[in-house]
Write a structure and sequence with these properties.
Blueprint: H1 3-9, E1 12-17, H2 18-21, E2 22-23, H3 25-34, H4 36-45, E3 52-53, H5 57-64, E4 75-81, H6 88-98, E5 104-107, H7 116-119, E6 124-127, H8 130-138, E7 142-146, E8 162-166, H9 176-184, H10 186-195, H11 207-219, E9 221-223, E10 226-227, E11 229-235, H12 242-252, E12 258-261, H13 268-274, E13 278-281, H14 284-290, E14 296-298
Helix pairs in contact: 1-11, 3-4, 9-10
């Protein structure tokens, strides 16, 4: 089946919380500090004020622009919010003013959003709520906890490309190789990866999302090997452990447009040079650095945030 037919039958579906799509930090601080009644009053007072873009805004906007026919979209975005339905008006008014084709949503009046992710058949869930993200990830759907957007992020709405960057192990790939490094050390890790260089790694939590994103990439190739959807791998692996990354992506049929094997170096400058619109990593250390430069989401993973696993050297 062609990529067009597959995505028409089963679109790439992104579920995003209101706080991930828009900048609602001031309102959230009122909720935390003054309670629900003050929060509701503030939201109603500002009902006709357009919200500012949040960390997930630009990648959502760019993905939606790839839909040629709104009747048979390749990408669908579902708004998921713990707000009461009464407070949905401001969000949808802002969506309309920005020209985003988002028509569907769930508003739960404080209840967890996690049960609605499989109900909507979501491929990627983006939120600012740690408990919802963890619950969704534990249930087997790609999920990320979005940080506040960097202050200097540029919302250039004229470019057609969407550039999405991923860490490798425990995000796109399984954490099995990380565990070798953690339990046996760096030399054992390199030996393991040399011996298994041409054996594809097992799928990680973002495999399903990557597969559909790769279909979208194929659909949007506009000249040889150049697509409006640009996929990047930015990993702490370096040679010789890099080979297995390439062979795995080749075996999966999910080619990357860019691969950066950074070893122990910071990922932020690479992501800035790439012009990534969003970056996903499972390790807090990398997200702390990257989130000051590009919109970033932490993927729930098996590693202790205080003892990061960085298999490079």
């Amino acid at each position: 089946m062609k990529a067009e037919d597959e995505l028409t039958a089963s679109p790439l579906r992104i579920g995003i919380s209101t706080r991930a799509l828009f900048d609602l930090e001031e309102e959230h601080n009122v909720f935390e500090g003054q309670g629900v009644d003050a929060y509701i009053e503030l939201q109603r007072t500002r009902e006709n004020e357009r919200l500012k873009p949040g960390a997930g805004f630009q990648v959502v906007e760019r993905l939606l622009k790839l839909n040629n026919d709104s009747q048979t979209p390749y990408v669908e975005v579902i708004l998921l919010s713990r707000n009461a339905p009464d407070l949905s008006l401001r969000a949808f008014k802002s969506i309309d003013e920005f020209g985003l084709n988002i028509k569907l949503g769930s508003f739960t009046s404080g209840r967890s959003l996690a049960p609605f992710v499989p109900a909507w058949d979501i491929d990627l869930f983006l939120s600012n709520d740690p408990s919802d993200v963890r619950s969704v990830a534990n249930a087997g759907t790609a999920a990320a906890l979005l940080r506040e957007p960097p202050e200097n992020v540029s919302y250039d709405r004229n470019e057609e490309e969407v550039r999405i960057a991923f860490d490798g192990d425990a995000v796109v790939f399984s954490p099995e190789s990380d565990e070798v490094y953690k339990n046996q050390g760096l030399e054992a890790f390199f030996q393991h990866e040399r011996e298994n260089a041409q054996n594809p790694m097992s799928a990680g939590p973002f495999y399903g999302f990557l597969k559909k994103l790769s279909m979208l990439r194929e659909i949007n190739i506009y000249k040889p090997r150049v697509s409006k959807v640009r996929i990047g791998i930015v990993t702490a692996r370096n040679a010789p452990a890099h080979e297995r990354v390439i062979y795995t992506l080749r075996a999966w049929g999910t080619p990357a447009d860019e691969a950066h094997f950074v070893g122990p170096n910071a990922k932020g400058p690479i992501l800035e040079a790439m012009g990534a619109h969003i970056f996903f990593d499972d390790q807090k250390k990398h997200i702390d650095s990257a989130a000051t430069i590009v919109p970033s989401g932490q993927v729930p993973g098996p590693h202790d945030n205080e003892n990061p696993i960085i298999p490079a050297g």
